[in-house]
Amino acid sequence: MKNKNVALSEKEILLKEYEEAVSCLKIAEQNFEYASPEFFEVANQELTVARLKNDTILKKMKACNLM
Fold this sequence. Notes:
mainly alpha, 72% helix, elongated
């Protein structure tokens, strides 16, 4: 099987980033929901970062008319 280098379009890249961001956000939400008190701050920061990443990708998609 040959290894082909295929360039992804901007749309494909953003869609992959969005899928990954949604997955990370779901995990962060679950970790936050079940965090023990000693891990609350870490879980809160992870959730904040995941939300920011998700929001940023949505803004990029909107700017590229993908929504």
